[in-house]
Amino acid sequence: MSFGQPISSFPIVAVRSFIEATRDTGYKSTGAAIAELVDNAIEAEATEIDIQIEPIESAEGKQVAIRVADNGTGMKPQVLRLALQFGGSTRFGSRKAAGRYGMGLPNGSLSQARRVEVFTWTRPGQVWTTYLDVDEIAAGRLQHVPPPKRFPQSSLVAKGPSGTVVSLTRCDRLDCRRIRTLEEKLAPELGRLFRKHLYEGKSLRLNGQTVSPLDPLFLRPGQNLTGATAFGPPLEYRVRIPSSKDKESLVVVRFTELPIDRWHELSNDRKNQVRIAKHAGVSIVRAGREIDYGWYFMGSKRKENYDDWWRCEISFSPDLDELFGVTHSKQKINPTEALSAILVPEMERVARELNTRVRKKYALIRHQGPASKTTQKLESRDFLLEPPKALRNVRRTGDQLSLSVPATSTTAIRGLRFALAHRPSAEPCFYEPRLRADCVNLVLNESHPFFTTVYKPLAGDGRGAPSAVLPQILALLFAGARAECSINRVKHRAIIRRFREHWSDTLAAFLS
């Protein structure tokens, strides 16, 4: 039944409105859209990928153009035409790489620009090109992907015997119009999304600058701090592939702990800059490429500020796309209940354990806060003092010590380090100074009356704010310990120790 109109009047896709609608696919960012083009280059076995963002003059005035060039295998004319068709792909449904649906090239490109042109070659001197143009489609002048035409390679900025260049012009939906700002956003985003490929040796450049990997786990070097440690061995789950009765695929979950003791004193701005603060979450990696980052598989555990100090990564293969609910734009997951039932119990348990560890470390830091700040201040000034004679000629090589290694210049001498500890002792002395390598260790006697009646209340015992006078008390004690450690002769050290014992006994009597 046609209701008075021929069946041909109702195509499955209304091309004009479809093109405008598909531009609103919902890419999170310009970087997520460009990632589709990088995916294609990697699938084409490219080892070098260059992204150029540049200003161009047009009839509409100054605009921004984006060009993504690679040295991959290139495409033959018939494959090129298919690549610009929505849903067109020689690998449709493939589970071997990033792409599956043939939507990445046209969808990602037109989400940012009103015109996309593709130039490709499989041998030198034989470049083919075709295009899609939103305005021509809307006007009804373009209803099919134009047949590819030969194009002179001399006018392309492309190298190698084969490759592809995707050119985006009339860019009207970029995250920002300023090229410099766009570069600053794209470099870390692409470095994170493709970190695995970059660590494996792929070359990705943005306006001539190499894009370094960005590891959200803080384990490997790149556009990030390093110093995190793996929390336990990776969790491995063998999950049945939905399309198979007996085949399984591996899901690997890794957790890392960030070094709170080293990084907690960074300013809030710095913590934001290096992606510590407000970046708690799980990195979802599919086929070696991150496709999402969020608070996944945490069960009933809600996200807290303490969770900024640990990270998680889940890796899986495209065989499990249905379970993870991977979208065709490869930038979000919608995991099924079946998958959550497998992953959530242990992941939530680990997350809660890490959260508890962070809380305890922060409680300890708050308790030792004045000591930490005092030791940092002392270390910054100790280079003004003569180092202990026994250590003056010790030099650092790798992990070996040196007091003659410059701190900030070739003439400055680096000072000693300082550390505080306390424990109960039957010895009469209130404190013991110990020189270990280049560190003065000050050990307070918890059994001495000065510790229980003066020091402990000043420190707040972790329940209240430490007294403002505590840093001065610590500086006084460290000065005595530092001076005693500088005495070289054995008989002189024995005299000083006897004095310290008598002084501690007298102090205990006065405080009793």
Tell me the layout of helices and strands.
Blueprint: H1 15-22, H2 30-43, E1 48-58, E2 61-70, H3 77-83, H4 104-110, E3 113-121, E4 127-133, H5 134-138, E5 149-151, E6 163-171, H6 179-193, H7 195-199, E7 203-206, E8 209-210, E9 229-230, E10 235-240, E11 248-257, H8 260-263, H9 268-273, E12 282-286, E13 289-294, E14 310-316, H10 321-324, H11 337-381, E15 417-423, E16 431-436, E17 439-445, H12 449-459, H13 470-485, H14 490-511
What does this structure look like?
The chain has an eight-stranded mixed sheet. It folds into three domains: about 15-210, Histidine kinase-like ATPase, C-terminal domain (Heat Shock Protein 90), CATH 3.30.565.10; about 230-360, Ribosomal Protein S5, domain 2 (2-Layer Sandwich); about 385-510, no CATH class. The protein has about 500 residues and is an alpha+beta fold. Residues about 395-415 have low confidence and may be disordered. Helices cover about 35% and strands about 20% of the residues. About 30% of the residues are buried. The protein starts with 14 loop residues before the first helix and ends with a helix. A hairpin with a 5-residue loop joins strand 3 and strand 4 (about 125-135). Helix 2 (about 30-45) packs antiparallel against helix 4 (about 105-110) and helix 11 (about 335-380) packs across helix 13.
